[in-house]
């Protein structure tokens, strides 16, 4: 009589164990979210993250190659020449394709219509609500930048103002060697190479960065201790 009761209990055990299995995919699905960004902010930020970390080699290669060619063109030619050549190249492609499709339709006596009709019918108008949203988002950053500029130039914090002065002094030497386009080219090369290198050698880089940060912090603390008014403000 004891064996039937054990047999009746086994389906409940198996059903409970089978019921626990569907929860696994939900837990593993959260791993697809963008690292350190969360599911709420994983929009354009995730796209940029995947782009600079070469998650899609073809897409990143296209963006990197196109922007690099554009910057190299700006370094060799004027902005007007580069923009004019780009517009001429685009018009050459579209006009050639339009004429080609017109000839094909005339030969085949078909009525396919305009080849770019699907793109011409796309609504690209910017609504007033979207425009105000972009303006409000931009104003947040502009106001933050204005507050930072006022705080630095009116010396609210002497150490921060000195940091800006030292940085600008170093930038005078950088400007004597490089121009703006060269700096943009170097910045792009760093943006598309440093994250990949850091991801590969994260442990070693964090170790040396921690050492440099500790030394910098100790130097700043010594400077703050010797400057008048800084130590008193810190104590308050």
TrEMBL record:
Query: Which residues lie within the region annotated Disordered?
Result: 1-31
Which parts of the sequence belong to the Reticulon domain?
Answer: 48-236
Please tell me whether the keyword DNA-binding is annotated for this protein.
Answer: no
Q: Return the Pfam families for the record.
A: Reticulon (PF02453)
* Localization, UniProt: Endoplasmic reticulum membrane
Q: Which InterPro entries match?
A: Reticulon, RTN1-4
Keywords from UniProt, A to Z, are: Endoplasmic reticulum, Membrane, Transmembrane, Transmembrane helix
Residue ranges annotated as transmembrane are 62-91, 176-198
Query: Topologically, how does it sit relative to the membrane?
Result: Multi-pass membrane protein
| Main location group | endoplasmic reticulum
Protein name from the UniProt record = Reticulon
- Gene of this entry: LOC101407365
């Amino acid at each position: 009589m004891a064996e039937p009761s054990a047999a009746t209990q086994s389906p409940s055990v198996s059903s409970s164990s089978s019921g626990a299995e569907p929860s696994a995919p939900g837990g593993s699905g959260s791993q697809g979210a963008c690292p350190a960004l969360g599911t709420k902010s994983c929009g354009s930020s995730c796209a940029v993250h995947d782009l600079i970390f070469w998650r899609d080699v073809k897409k990143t290669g296209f963006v990197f190659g196109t922007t690099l060619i554009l910057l190299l063109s700006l370094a060799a030619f004027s902005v007007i020449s580069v923009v004019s050549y780009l517009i001429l190249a685009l018009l050459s492609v579209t006009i050639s394709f339009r004429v080609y499709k017109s000839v094909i339709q005339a030969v085949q006596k078909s009525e396919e219509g305009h080849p770019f009709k699907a793109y011409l019918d796309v609504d690209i108008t910017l609504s007033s609500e979207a425009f105000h949203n972009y303006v409000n988002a931009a104003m947040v950053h502009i106001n933050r930048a204005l507050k930072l500029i006022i705080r630095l130039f009116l010396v609210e914090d002497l150490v921060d103002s000195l940091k800006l002065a030292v940085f600008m002094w170093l930038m005078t030497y950088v400007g004597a060697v490089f121009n703006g386009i060269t700096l943009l080219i170097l910045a792009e090369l760093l943006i598309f190479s440093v994250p990949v290198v850091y991801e590969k050698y994260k442990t070693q880089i964090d170790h040396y960065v921690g050492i440099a940060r500790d030394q910098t912090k100790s130097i700043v603390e010594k400077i703050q201790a010797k400057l008048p008014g800084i130590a008193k403000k810190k104590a308050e």
